[in-house]
TrEMBL record:
Belongs to the binding-protein-dependent transport system permease family. CDD domains: TM_PBP2. Keywords: Cell membrane, Membrane, Transmembrane, Transmembrane helix, Transport. It is a multi-pass membrane protein. It is found in: Cell membrane. It comes from the Bacteria. Its main location: membrane. SUPFAM superfamilies: MetI-like. It comes from Gilvirhabdus luticola. Residues 163-353 form the ABC transmembrane type-1 domain. This is ABC transporter permease. The chain crosses the membrane at residues 20-43, 165-191, 198-220, 226-245, 284-307, 333-353.
Length: 364
């Protein structure tokens, strides 16, 4: 049995490697995963949630360049290296977009940036108030590769950090749905009878409620927030897994290897976990990929409605909500770019799900 299992896995892997779309989607998803984990390393604005606002340069087009004056803070953030990488820098410095400046010894006179041909305010600052080691790179040339949003935040940084929410909600939601779905489906399919009838009634009732409405109800009950959305999405996606697991167990529980396990005196828990589930994992893997894509769409919809990830957290759905009216104001990229990110990630998971379905299909 084990040799046959290994050979089937190797055959499925070989078939998967021959599917260009599946391999390309896997590489793309892996790349997005790396960017999600180390988003603050790649983001030009590595402050927490990339939330550095510069209202003077709001809604600028991709490729916009400006001089940025950074006035160091006198307070120490006391933040570890790993905290900066994983959660962003606690930025207490003051950043000011400027159009020109003159430095005379310890006096810096600068003109604030003003758009539409207007003249900005001219101000001065005494540099002797700041320690010398904080004066490095006082004025930098900043380029916004994807432009800025309506609050003057770097759009590229918000996109990179927003990938973290969309990516990890898939993992957590699918993990929750697998735990509940496999448990409920295994009990219903293996024991049958009244147990099956009760669990199927619960599944059918949950199935009959529109997914988005159920997620909204759970979110309102748990409260708005980051983790609440993850839990709410996971609690609504287990029914598909339960139905698939139940059907697969019903079809295999009378096979010879299960009968042999019963004859050897193994308990029901061991038979289900050690003998049945490993042999029906193929459809579960495929439906998990589809659920991953569905979780991303649901989270984006919740953020668009304002009950998903809350500001100032970066979320692709929330970015579309903030800028969808810019589509008719001549700057559609502010909403189109996060929309394309959602679409590309969802399509990648659907393609990899189709590739795994074909690879695990023993008839092909």
């Amino acid at each position: 049995m084990s040799n046959q299992s290994r050979s089937l896995k190797q055959l499925a892997l070989q078939k998967f490697k021959k599917d260009f779309r599946g391999v390309f989607s896997f590489i793309f998803i892996l790349l997005v995963g790396i960017i999600s984990i180390f988003a603050y390393v790649f983001a030009p604005d590595n402050s927490q949630n990339a939330n550095q606002m510069h209202l003077a340069i709001h809604s600028k087009k991709p490729g916009f360049e400006v001089k940025m004056l950074t006035l160091p803070s006198k307070t120490d953030s006391n933040q570890s290296f790993f905290s900066r990488i994983l959660f962003g820098k606690k930025n207490t410095d003051t950043e000011i977009p400027i159009s020109s400046f003159i430095r005379d010894d310890n006096q810096l006179t600068y003109t604030e940036y003003a758009s539409d041909g207007l003249d900005g305010l001219t101000k001065s600052v005494n540099l002797s108030e700041f320690p010398d080691y904080l004066m490095k790179d006082l004025i930098k040339h900043r380029k916004f590769y994807l432009g800025t949003d309506k609050y003057g935040r770097d759009l590229l940084s918000r996109i990179l950090i927003g990938a973290r929410i969309s990516f990890f909600i898939g993992f957590i939601a699918v993990f929750i749905s697998l735990i509940i779905g496999i448990t409920m489906g295994s009990i219903a399919g293996y024991f049958g009878g009244k147990t099956d009838a009760i669990i199927m009634w619960i599944i059918n009732v949950t199935w009959s409620i529109p997914t988005l409405l159920l997620v909204i109800a759970i979110t309102l009950a748990l409260g708005k927030g980051f983790w609440q959305v993850f839990i709410a999405v996971g609690l609504t996606m287990w029914v598909e897994v339960a139905r698939v697991v139940r059907g697969q167990i019903i079809s295999v529980k009378e096979m010879q290897y299960v009968t042999a396990a019963r004859a050897l005196g193994y308990n029901d828990f061991r038979i289900i976990t050690k003998h049945i589930l490993p042999n029906i994992m193929s459809p579960i893997i495929v439906i998990s990929a589809a659920n991953f894509a569905a979780a991303i769409l649901i989270e984006s919809g919740l953020s668009f409605l304002g009950i998903g990830a809350q500001p100032p957290m970066a979320s692709w759905g929330a970015m579309i909500k903030d800028h969808y009216n810019y589509i008719i104001l001549g700057k559609p990229y502010l909403a189109v770019i996060p929309g394309l990110c959602i679409m590309s990630l969802v399509v990648a998971f659907m393609l990899i799900g189709n590739a795994m379905r074909d690879a695990f299909d023993v008839k092909s």
